[in-house]
Amino acid sequence: MPHTIRVEPSGHRFEAAPDESLLDAALRQGLVLPYGCRNGACGSCKARLLNGQVTYPGETPDGIEAGEAEAGFALLCQARTAQDLVIEVNEIHEAGELRPERLAVRVRGLERLNHDVMRLQLQLPRDRRMQFMAGQYIEVITREGRHRAYSLANPPHDDGALELHVRFVSGGDFTEHVFGGMREGEVLQIQGPLGQFTLREASPNPVVLVAGGTGFAPIKGLLEHAFHVGTTRPLHLYWGVRARRDLYLPALPEAWAEARPNFSYTPVLSEPLAGDGWDGRTGFVHDAVAADYPDASGVDVYAAGPPVMVRAVRDAVVDHGLPEARFHSDPFEWGIPEEK
Ligand SMILES: Cc1cc2nc3c(=O)[nH]c(=O)nc-3n(C[C@H](O)[C@H](O)[C@H](O)COP(=O)(O)OP(=O)(O)OC[C@H]3O[C@@H](n4cnc5c(N)ncnc54)[C@H](O)[C@@H]3O)c2cc1C
Ligand code: FES
After folding, report:
1. Looking at the domain assignment, is residue 288 inside a domain?
2. Does 33 lie in the same domain as 54?
3. Residue 338: pLDDT over 60
């Protein structure tokens, strides 16, 4: 039977089964509590027990000292409970509260999704996790010390590996390597999490999400997170690309639309090919959004992808009444300083 855990000072509650860690239970139910290794070693998930007791599956983990345990602290990534609890821990509300760290990761998977997009799965060091919020990005640091930003396409609850969608750029330092010499097992230096492109969950407004090309990556993360926490807000995804082949995961948004009554999907092709057999929307994606939302004053808009597309979407929806504060964006600017 699950037990109820009340979190102070927020007053939020979640349920935990006796055989799952308190952290897993909280994350599963959409509460963002701080963590690091999820392995009992780093101490980042420490919380004070205000009422009730916890147990650990084995020895008391290394991340908590005996004196701290006696003083009523617990490591939530390992602790289990057989009773209702009250715990004191500060929830994470904003991406800025997460401190970026530098990690060595291993390429676990390389999958060609279409003619110019590769899905990379990056394996964190054994028993490590990187805490992030859906929609954030990491930087890959090349051997020459160059930083290249890539959005995280996986949601935080599915953080066993980091998923990137990398589009080939002709002559590009990093992407030429991804599509050329990169092999599974290669070690990459990364730093993250970075960025503020996260879902403002306190807002009750319908959400319009606009992806251009691999701007689908952070938006996939945002949507999978929203589905996971059970949001009932209407979610409308536009995915703007040139031709049909550029919709590099075509079945995924279609499956979401089929399974979820609050989700709708509008792909928009700007230059369909003769053989595309396309009878869907065409033109620029910002024009499609503008046509569908003549009054955008009541929605929240999230746009990610090429800077020129992100600016065009912003201008279109602000023209149609969207307050600028409710426009959130992740322009894939290039030309990040070489050394940081
Ligand atoms: C916050 C953020 C998130 C990002 N997320 C992603 C992502 O999820 N997926 C993804 O594929 N990219 C993403 N990018 C872009 C990515 O960081 C790189 O710019 C891109 O992969 C090129 O790197 P490169 O080393 O191969 O090319 P570089 O060696 O940096 O550039 C080679 C040449 O191509 C030009 N160029 C660089 N990038 C582009 C581009 N995107 N389009 C057209 N010309 C370009 C440069 O000006 C230069 O002339 C993101 C950028 C930012 C800032
Ligand atoms: S997250 Fe590192 S000890 Fe719990």
Report:
1. yes
2. yes
3. no
Q: What is the pLDDT of residues 109-150, one digit of tens each?
A: 999 999 999 999 999 987 778 999 999 999 999 988 888 999
Count how many domains the chain has. Answer: 3
Whether the pTM exceeds 0.85: the reply is yes
pLDDT grade, residue 197 (50/70/90)? very high
Please work out whether the CB of residue 34 comes within 6 Å of at least one atom of ligand 2: no
Same domain assignment for residues 66 and 38: yes
Supply the CATH number for residue 316's domain.
Answer: 3.40.50.80
Domain of residue 8, CATH code: 3.10.20.30
How many Cβ atoms sit within 10 Å of the Cβ of residue 166? 24
Q: Are residues 326 and 215 in the same domain?
A: yes
Ligand 1: which residues within 6 Å by Cβ? 137, 148-151, 165-167, 169, 171-175, 195, 214, 217, 330, 332-334
* C-alpha dihedral sign at 268, 270, 275, 278: positive
**Whether residue 52 is found in the same domain as residue 115:** no
**Closest approach atom of ligand 2 to CA 38:** 1
Among 37, 80, 101, the mutation site with the greatest number of ligand 2 atoms within 8 A of its Cβ is 37
